[in-house]
Amino acid sequence: MAQWNRTMFYRRLLEQWSHGAWGSFEDAGAGSFSGYMLNRLGPQRTNTPLLAQLFASPKANFIIFQGDQLLVTATQPRALGYLGAREILECAPNPFTLSDPPINSPGLEWVFLGIDKVPQPNSTQATEMAPPDQTLPYDQYPSYWVVDISLKASAPDSPAHALAQKVEATVATNDTQLAPLQRAAFGLSIKEGAILAQAVTMVDWNRKNRFCPGCGRPTVSSDAGYKRNCVTEPAGSVDPTAHLRPPCVNRHGVHNSMYPRTDPAVIACVTSSDGNRVLLGRKKSFPKRWYTCVAGFIEPGESMEDAVRREVQEETGIRVGPVMYYASQPWQPFPNQLMLGCIAQAVIDDIAVEDDELEDVQWFTREQAVAAVNRAKASLATSPSSPSKVTAPTSPTNFSTPPPHSIAYQLIHFWATSQLNSPRL
Ligand SMILES: [Zn+2]
Known about the structure:
Layout: H1 2-18, H2 48-56, E1 60-66, E2 69-73, E3 82-83, H3 85-89, H4 95-98, E4 110-115, E5 143-148, H5 159-173, E6 176-180, H6 181-184, H7 190-208, E7 219-222, E8 227-230, E9 263-271, E10 277-282, E11 294-297, H8 304-316, E12 320-330, E13 337-346, E14 360-365, H9 366-382, H10 407-417
Parallel strand pairs: 1-5, 9-13
Antiparallel strand pairs: 1-2, 1-3, 2-6, 4-5, 7-8, 9-10, 9-11, 10-14, 12-13
This protein binds zinc ion (ZN).
GO biological process, one term: NADP+ catabolic process
EC number: 3.6.1.22
Region (Disordered): 381-400
């Protein structure tokens, strides 16, 4: 019987998929940190002459991070606040013209994010690909960069110090501000939400990998910010212990510890064994009556399906059978995190909360889920600049979902508006 149920579950999911609903972000209203891709020009990350051109182009856009703050517009709708190449070059030299491979000024590490599509004359539509047919050279396209100006140790006459002062002056005179990432990340357009997801992750990874995980020596940025190298001590190093350290594994053979990482996590919309209810939980810190899907990191040695079954059992006591991938989302403002959204089906429906991660876990009906989804949608319509705020339910038995730009909402929305339940299941 269990096998038959599983077959039916997968068949029903695949039927929904064929109707075009699978994996699409409904009602998101704002950036969901995915759904837009710059052309990252990965093979060109060591093309120093090209990077020099892109860096100095009037079409270059530089995203600025300072600590946990980000340069954004001060007015609504919220948008990223960029510096242009002219402003950057008033403070710092073009690192790609200094030498090949390039050398960064102390305290400034540049990451090249990619080039964008080019809007066509007399049209709001951009070309589909960037560049579409090689008719334009790369440097004719808008490019995106990110730089972190957090390093406080910069000397007063250094480029890093000059750039920090430039940002300060920009904030004082323009309609821009340095805003905490957690606030700035929400409400951006789809395009800028996706660019920010890439930028945040790259800044965080470069910040946290200034020392080699293989040997502890300092690392230097390369490949336009997409790689860090373990460096050899300079001749005449004053470190008397340098010769005592073992040869570094990151300097030889195949390794991947010097490239940006992504940590996969699972988030699951679990249906009851008959498909008629959805399993949601809440933490103490959540707003009142706010419930969401079970989520957690994939542990070493687990498949995505293993992780869903373990997390759901640990947090709710529910044993899960079929698990199917739905859609994914790089979840900001947490860097490096990729949420893998799944639909799963319970084998038994008896909740048993044993740990203290969740304050409460409940089964909700489709009617309750539809009402919650509609309320989230209405909240977004009345307050588009605060997409993370969802109006609380008026009935004490109802619940609120996370906001529409979250994968949790998308999973609940999919289940609430699908026909997964059936007397035959
Ligand atoms: Zn090393």
